[in-house]
Amino acid sequence: MKLAVDVMGGDNAPQSALDGCRSAHDAFPDLELILVGDESQMKEDWLESSRVRIVHTTEKIESDDAPVKAVRRKKEASMVKAVQMVKDKEADACISAGNTGALMTAGLLIVGRIPGIERPALAPMLPTLDGGGFLLLDVGANMEAKASHLVQYAEMGSVYMNRVRGIEKPRVALLNVGAEGGKGTELVKEAFDGLEQADIHFIGNIEGRELLEGRADIVVTDGFSGNLVLKTIEGTALSLFQILRKELTSSLKNKLAAGVLKPAFKNVRSKLDYAEYGGAGLFGLQAPVIKAHGSSDGHAFFSAVRQAVTMHQENVIPMIRKAAEEE
């Protein structure tokens, strides 16, 4: 497999991308890496491997760039070049931790949608208390959605969870304000009816307070609501760790207790850590395009690379294409 990597995107670029790619290079002997970015910042010994190629460019898309303008005007930007390599069949997939809107725009304009898919969805894996995680679609690719979009999100998510996570009948739930089918907005009520008729394992509505309990493998919603959920879960986890850190270092007694409980706290953190779950896939495109978290460290970036590798190996895109054709 050939993977194009934008090493210039993200808060910790290029080091986090390089660290994650080095781990992936060691873990996947059949993986060829195409690193797109400023060659002067890539001087590590492992980059001399025959499975690594560097494509030099100093131009990058900034976090505050307007997505559409940036993609159209910055043709030499590392992100745009990485996505273009997928379009040109030089790479099987690409990954970036840069500007989310720009990556979605580049994916749509350059790679293109699978025929039959109305709208792509940005879909991260999020943690659950049992450690299994769930796939949330959509978290911002489409702020306004139709019921038919949510049904397609569920179908694409089911293919992914089956092929990549090995779940025979992934449980699909619809995010709503109550468990009853008649509740919610017109969009949600119409989507409920469509999901009941779709060829998926639909288990009904799920409330926000139930998301982390592991009741569903896939949760579908519109991009506006999904983005709120994503940011709320991330913010709550970070706030919880900050509160614990402050309390456990506030006195000598607490510091001693923290020393004893350190392994338990590490287990809790690992269950809530986005770094363990990889990036967010842009589902519905002609090839895997993965958005790594903007604040990714090397481990988080490696997890995102692993997701791209697995999607390619398990033929997720051809399976989604086949499902779209059968509708």
From TrEMBL:
* Entry EC number(s): 2.3.1.274
Natural source organism: Alkalicoccus urumqiensis (Bacillus urumqiensis)
**Record protein name field:** Phosphate acyltransferase
Record's subcellular location: Cytoplasm
Report the InterPro entries cross-referenced here. FA_synthesis, Phospholipid_synth_PlsX-like
Q: What is this protein for, i.e. what is its function?
A: Catalyzes the reversible formation of acyl-phosphate (acyl-PO(4)) from acyl-[acyl-carrier-protein] (acyl-ACP). This enzyme utilizes acyl-ACP as fatty acyl donor, but not acyl-CoA.
Looking at its record, which EC class is this enzyme?
transferase
According to its record, what are the GO cellular component terms? Answer: cytoplasm
This protein's superkingdom?
A: Bacteria
Which Pfam families does the protein's record reference?
FA_synthesis
Q: Catalyses which reaction?
A: a fatty acyl-[ACP] + phosphate = an acyl phosphate + holo-[ACP]
Its pathway, per UniProt, is: Lipid metabolism; phospholipid metabolism
Q: Which Gene Ontology molecular function entries are recorded, alphabetically?
A: phosphate:acyl-[acyl carrier protein] acyltransferase activity
